[in-house]
Amino acid sequence: MLRELGRLTRVYDPFYAPDETVWLRQYDFVTASEVLEHLHRPAAELDRLFGVLKPGGWLGVMTQPWREPDALPTWSYLRDPTHVCFYSRPVFEYIAARWRAEPAYVGDDVVLLRRRD
User: Fold this and answer.
1) Is the Cα torsion angle 64, 92, 84, 13 positive or negative in sign?
2) β-strands 110-115, 101-106: how paired?
3) What is the β-pairing status of strands 27-33 and 53-62?
4) What DSSP state is assigned to residue 94?
5) How far is CA 104 from its chain centroid?
6) Quick check: 27 pLDDT over 90?
């Protein structure tokens, strides 16, 4: 979608686009759409993602956060075997504090994290 708007983009996916050179540059904006729930080592991967953001840059995350404890047994994300970790607003607040970012919530499933330094 960004390319269609004429934006210069780089793509990384460990299986479908394993271009390791993406980690050698810094970016104004990084997206992780439906990615974080698949990470076996989320802290290490968040280190990498925040590490390539320029100061003031944004990490855009889209994932379905866990909201209601009573709904957990029927939550579709829990039944997907590729989903190995789950997020909620308090988890994103922790991420923001840990990686020195300011969170902004957009709708139900998107959080934008702006790197402070």
Assistant:
1) positive
2) antiparallel
3) parallel
4) H
5) 13
6) yes
DSSP designation for 108: T
Record the tokens describing residue 73, joined without a space.
């047994």
Name residue, tokens 């020195």. Answer: 100
How far is residue 11's CA from residue 105's CA, in Å, rounded to a whole number?
24
Q: Which domains does the chain have, with CATH numbers?
A: 25-115 (3.40.50.150)
pLDDT in tens, 73-109: 888 888 899 999 999 999 999 999 999 999 999 999 9
Give the pTM. 0.90
Question: In the numeric block, which tokens belong to residue 8?
Answer: 């210069």
The encoded tokens of residue 62 equal 């889209």
Distances 7 to 2, 10, 28, 98, 110 between C-alpha atoms, Å: 5, 10, 12, 30, 21
Tell me the average pLDDT of the chain. 94
